[in-house]
């Protein structure tokens, strides 16, 4: 019998939680990142980072129960086990805050935590439906973006030359583009908490169902990210905006209202993960 709160999540719950944690509004800036990398390097970086992050996700899933009889329900707990109770928090917590990439997340957690202890597995189980809605929003606004780019077609005199800027500025923007693509596959900081919702027995450890969920989440990640990045860059070339929706003129009400509303709904839903 497992101690602590009940763990009743199905493997597909982890799919929706992982998609919600990974696929965010940053997908809309991927064509802009491509403009600084070009077709060849940009495609290579996106595929390479997709594979690397999938592999590191697999490693974290295996580490969740690396000590017999113990489940590391939080990334924080795994950090303390790996680096010690004193050094571990100093190594792990800054990384988590940087990866989340927004102080608002921390502020909201501080305000909501006394009322909704969403870190507990039973609450995550209750809120899986919120993750479903947020994941659907991610898939929806990503689809609107790449379908809108295909529908619009290429701009006049589209150019795929590298953006014109000074040498030093260009180097920094290349690193920024690499960061945009890297952060697009974020979600590792909460994978331990997501796996904590999955039941585990000696015969059927949680890593099996969790890995199934992550594989499907990465499939959804791919069909959100790659089409947006490639069609956005194909349509606008080096003139693409940092938010690809800005360049879509028709149908304006669909882009401005529907897609951006979906982004807002997704962001709200992602806080509980």
Automatic annotation (TrEMBL):
<dbReference type="GO" id="GO:0016020">
    <property type="term" value="C:membrane"/>
</dbReference>
<keyword id="KW-0029">Amino-acid transport</keyword>
<feature type="domain" description="Amino acid transporter transmembrane">
    <location>
        <begin position="127"/>
        <end position="273"/>
    </location>
</feature>
<feature type="transmembrane region" description="Helical">
    <location>
        <begin position="39"/>
        <end position="61"/>
    </location>
</feature>
<feature type="transmembrane region" description="Helical">
    <location>
        <begin position="215"/>
        <end position="236"/>
    </location>
</feature>
<protein>
    <submittedName>
        <fullName>Transmembrane amino acid transporter family protein</fullName>
    </submittedName>
</protein>
<dbReference type="InterPro" id="IPR013057">
    <property type="entry name" value="AA_transpt_TM"/>
</dbReference>
<dbReference type="GO" id="GO:0006865">
    <property type="term" value="P:amino acid transport"/>
</dbReference>
<keyword id="KW-1133">Transmembrane helix</keyword>
<dbReference type="Pfam" id="PF01490">
    <property type="entry name" value="Aa_trans"/>
</dbReference>
<keyword id="KW-0813">Transport</keyword>
<keyword id="KW-0812">Transmembrane</keyword>
<keyword id="KW-0472">Membrane</keyword>
<feature type="transmembrane region" description="Helical">
    <location>
        <begin position="251"/>
        <end position="271"/>
    </location>
</feature>
<feature type="domain" description="Amino acid transporter transmembrane">
    <location>
        <begin position="8"/>
        <end position="92"/>
    </location>
</feature>
<feature type="transmembrane region" description="Helical">
    <location>
        <begin position="12"/>
        <end position="33"/>
    </location>
</feature>
């Amino acid at each position: 019998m497992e101690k602590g709160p009940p763990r009743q999540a199905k493997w597909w719950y982890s799919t929706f939680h992982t998609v919600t944690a990974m696929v965010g509004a940053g997908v809309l800036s991927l064509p802009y990142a491509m403009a600084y990398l070009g077709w060849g390097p940009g495609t290579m970086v996106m595929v390479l980072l997709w594979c690397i992050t999938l592999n590191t996700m697999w490693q974290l899933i295996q580490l969740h129960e690396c000590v017999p009889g113990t489940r590391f329900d939080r990334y924080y707990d795994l950090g303390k086990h790996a680096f010690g109770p004193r050094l571990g928090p100093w190594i792990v917590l800054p990384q988590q805050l940087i990866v989340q990439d927004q102080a608002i997340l921390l502020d909201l957690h501080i305000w909501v935590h006394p009322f909704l202890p969403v870190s507990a597995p039973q609450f995550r189980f209750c809120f899986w439906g919120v993750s479903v809605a947020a994941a659907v929003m991610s898939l929806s606004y990503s689809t609107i973006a790449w379908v809108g780019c295909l529908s619009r077609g290429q701009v006049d005199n589209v150019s795929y030359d590298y953006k014109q800027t000074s040498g030093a500025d260009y180097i920094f923007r290349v690193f920024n583009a690499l960061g945009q693509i890297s952060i697009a596959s974020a979600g590792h900081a909460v994978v331990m908490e997501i796996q904590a919702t999955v039941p585990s027995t000696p015969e059927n450890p949680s890593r099996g169902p969790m890995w199934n969920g992550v594989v499907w989440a990465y499939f959804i990640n791919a069909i959100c990210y790659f089409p947006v990045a490639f069609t956005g860059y194909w349509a606008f070339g080096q003139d693409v905006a940092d938010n690809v929706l800005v360049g879509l003129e028709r149908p304006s009400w669909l882009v401005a209202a529907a897609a951006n509303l979906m982004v807002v709904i997704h962001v709200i839903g992602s806080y509980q993960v």
